[in-house]
Design a protein that fits this description.
The chain has eleven helices and no strands. It is an all-alpha fold. It has two domains: about 1-40 and about 50-195, no CATH class; about 200-285, no CATH class. One zinc ion binds next to helix 8.
């Protein structure tokens, strides 16, 4: 039997936090550098809110993200210890339940997490919790990739709480949990990066409308009391908590995106008579 010694707990926590920090800051940092620094002008037309937040604003998000990954590390160190003690349902090898179950378990995790997120998120919007806890996340009115983990420490506990919920209730292979965590990270950063990539008509399409968009969560940060969902738009639709103008605003974002491309091409073409070379550069810069 392994003892849950305090020394081991501290080193496990630090190790987990370090791994999570590397993963999060490398991914969110790369997206940030690409869209907010390097290709800022090129992809400006895809930006949902047509302005960039200041340095102080971004540094605040990074500071809170550090607290979040540290808390995630504590919980995951506990989970690793509980698994060694065989208290969780994590199984090995994959053959134990077969590949069919393996794939099903990943999909199941995503749907359980989607429901967990929606309902805990609704709870965090309860006035006293909102004021003292969830407000930290909502100070990001114009989300960036670093908003994804910018949580009050209590909210960080709620967010990572999905892992114990999953591993104590349903059997998962350890690698299925890694796939799920990777998916969560990517979707979370995409939902906060401030850019919309999905095509025209996506938010009102009869099938795709059930999937969430970056615009949907961006609107949650702007308007607050609406759009609580994570991966899907199922709960918000069923419970009528989407912003009444969600689909309309989505189309406005897409129209703004198209008109910026058109403006750029028109401007470049007009200039082409005077200086063909310059026009080509403009299109290239704004493509
Ligand atoms: Zn919220
Ligand atoms: Zn958010």
């Amino acid at each position: 039997m392994h003892t849950f010694s305090s020394y081991k707990t501290i080193t496990d926590t630090l190790e987990e936090s370090l791994l999570l920090s590397i993963r999060f800051f490398l991914f969110a940092g790369a997206i940030f550098l690409f869209f907010y620094v390097w290709k800022k002008r090129k992809y400006w037309h895809l930006k949902i809110q047509q302005r960039f937040p200041g340095k102080e604003y971004i540094l605040r998000e990074i500071r809170y993200s550090f607290y979040t990954v540290f808390i995630f590390g504590i919980v995951l160190a506990f989970v690793a210890w509980a698994t060694k003690e065989r208290w969780t349902l994590i199984y090995y090898p994959i053959d134990k339940y077969g590949w069919g179950y393996y794939v099903f378990s990943v999909i199941l995790m995503i749907f359980i997490h989607d429901a967990y997120f929606y309902w805990t998120h609704r709870m965090l919007h309860w006035k006293p919790l909102f004021k003292h806890v969830h407000l930290v996340h909502h100070l990001s009115l114009n989300p960036t990739p670093f908003s994804s983990y910018a949580f009050h420490p209590v909210e960080a506990v709620v967010e990572i709480g999905i892992i114990p919920v999953l591993i104590f209730t349903v059997p998962y292979h350890v690698s299925a949990i890694w796939i799920f965590s990777g998916y969560t990270l990517v979707m979370n950063v995409m939902g906060h990066m401030g850019y919309e990539f999905f095509p025209k008509g996506f938010a009102s399409h009869k099938i795709f409308k059930w999937h969430n968009t970056a615009t949907n969560h961006n609107m949650h940060h702007r308007f607050v009391k609406c759009n609580y969902g994570l991966y899907f738009n199922i709960w918000d639709r069923l419970l009528n908590t989407n912003h009444p103008r969600y689909e309309e605003i989505y189309e406005e974002v897409i129209a703004q995106r198209s008109s910026k491309i058109l403006e750029t091409i028109e401007a470049a073409t007009a200039k082409a008579g005077d200086d063909e070379m310059e026009a080509e550069t403009a299109i290239e810069l704004n493509r």
